[in-house]
């Protein structure tokens, strides 16, 4: 798996204009001939070594990329700030290096969110979109999301946001790279996959609200949203500190989505899927507090992956050295494998009647 020179890549990425398309990227890979496809182009996914691709999600890359993304150089990634602008250029550079095309239209990566969404007309920010087109059902889209922003600086202290949501952001990058490797080896996903890094989550889910109100791909064709917001730590309130992850929303709109999620976990990872916060009446209201909600309220089935809060939540001490990397890696693999099952399933998840 590609191990990037991150600082060199970041400097290169910031010099690239928004109008560059993947078609002009010298590292862009051309489509491979699929030895497992029939004349009609149908892939036999049962022949794919799925764990081979999951295992490209390595501890070294998760650690190296998160340390950089949650470094002081990003100045806490406050919406519209210079640090947030550095962050989106960094993400764009990673996708260019991987050869994953932009998903915002015409090969570009940025969806500009206007200042009207922030109650500050002069402020603008951007979502970052990357896209792998489906082989058989390209108009059906699975959205994987994570918010790229954090809360910036206060009194000279930088809030690095390693867990919130550096962990989700970098997980999305690693999942995209695993899907790209599979595609390069002839196992491109049956359905399309949108990797959506949204801005302005910390100021009211505004980046995902803008996308849901201005979708690049119709919400009616969006089969599900897997949203990743804080998956690198352990909740100190959890009595049994096993290999767990909290899941929220999986069964609220679609029993099919919940069943696929459960089956993927039992088949591949066997983590403890904890539904403690999975309720609209949960007093923490986590179902309403991250970007999946802007999909759920538009009848798109969702899963929110979450490790719970901890003593460093929204504090300057949320730093990369406190991430539990082995568990972070397992959770990231689980999300990739769940996405794999959804993207390649015989049918999309149906909504509850």
Classified by CATH, the class is Alpha Beta
Q: What percent of residues are in strands?
A: 15-25%
Order of helices and strands: HHHHEEEEEHEHEEHEHEH
Number of helices: 9
**Low-pLDDT segments, ≥5 res:** 1-40
Mean pLDDT: 90
- Count of domain modules: 1
Please give the largest β-sheet: 8 strands, mixed
For the terminal residues, how far apart are their CA atoms?
A: 43 Å
Helical percentage:
25-40%
CATH superfamily: Zn peptidases
Number of strands: 10
Radius of gyration: 19 Å
Strand order of the largest sheet: 1-2-6-3-7-10-8-9
Structural class: alpha/beta
Overall CATH architecture: 3-Layer(aba) Sandwich
What overall geometry do the principal axes of the alpha carbons give?
A: globular
Q: Examine the coordinates and then state which fold CATH places here, giving the name of the CATH topology.
A: Aminopeptidase
Q: Can you give a write-up of this model?
A:
The protein has 353 residues and is an alpha/beta fold. The chain has one domain (6-15, 47-343): Zn peptidases (Aminopeptidase, 3-Layer(aba) Sandwich), CATH 3.40.630.10. Helices cover 32% and strands 16% of the residues. It has helices spanning 6-14, 50-54, 59-69, 82-98, 162-184, 206-213, 255-269, 292-296, 325-343, and strands spanning 110-113, 125-132, 137-147, 153-154, 157-158, 191-198, 222-228, 244-248, 272-274, 302-306. Strands 1-2-6-3-7-10-8-9 form an eight-stranded mixed β-sheet, sandwiched between helices. Strands 4-5 form a two-stranded antiparallel sheet. Strand 8 (244-248), helix 7 and strand 9 form a beta-alpha-beta unit. Helix 1 (6-14) packs across helix 4 and helix 7 (255-269) packs across helix 9 (325-343). The protein is globular. The relative contact order is 0.16. The model is unreliable at 1-40 (pLDDT under 50).
């Amino acid at each position: 798996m590609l191990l990037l020179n991150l600082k060199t890549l970041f400097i290169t990425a910031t010099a690239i204009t928004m109008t560059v398309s993947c078609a002009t990227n010298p590292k862009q890979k051309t489509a491979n001939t699929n030895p497992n496809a029939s004349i009609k182009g149908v892939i036999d996914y049962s022949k794919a070594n799925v764990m081979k691709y999951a295992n490209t999600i390595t501890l070294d890359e998760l650690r190296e990329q998160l340390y950089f993304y949650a470094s002081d150089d990003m100045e806490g990634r406050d919406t519209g700030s210079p640090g947030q602008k550095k962050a989106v250029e960094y993400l764009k550079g990673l996708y260019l290096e991987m050869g994953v095309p932009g998903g915002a239209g015409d090969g570009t990566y940025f969806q500009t969110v206007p200042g009207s969404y922030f109650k500050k007309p002069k402020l603008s920010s951007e979502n970052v979109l990357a896209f792998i087109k489906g082989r058989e059902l390209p108009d059906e889209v699975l959205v994987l999301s994570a918010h790229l922003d954090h809360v910036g600086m206060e009194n000279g202290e930088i809030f690095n946001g390693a867990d919130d949501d550096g962990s989700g952001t970098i997980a999305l990058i690693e999942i995209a790279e695993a899907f790209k490797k599979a595609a390069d080896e002839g196992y491109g996903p049956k359905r399309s996959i949108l990797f959506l890094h949204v801005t302005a989550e910390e100021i009211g889910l505004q980046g995902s609200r803008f996308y849901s109100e201005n979708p690049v791909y119709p919400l009616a064709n969006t089969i599900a949203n897997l949203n990743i917001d804080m998956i690198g730590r352990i909740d100190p309130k959890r009595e049994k500190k096993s290999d767990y992850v909290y899941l929220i929303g999986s069964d609220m709109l679609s029993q099919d989505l919940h069943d696929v999620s459960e089956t993927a976990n039992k088949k591949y990872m066997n983590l403890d899927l904890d539904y403690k916060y999975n309720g609209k009446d949960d007093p923490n209201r986590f179902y309403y507090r991250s970007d999946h909600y802007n999909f759920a309220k538009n009848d798109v089935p969702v899963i929110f992956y979450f490790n719970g809060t901890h003593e460093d939540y929204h504090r300057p001490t949320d730093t990369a050295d406190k991430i539990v990397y082995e568990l972070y890696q397992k959770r990231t693999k689980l999300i990739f494998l769940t996405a794999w099952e959804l993207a390649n399933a015989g049918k999309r998840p149906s909504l509850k009647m």
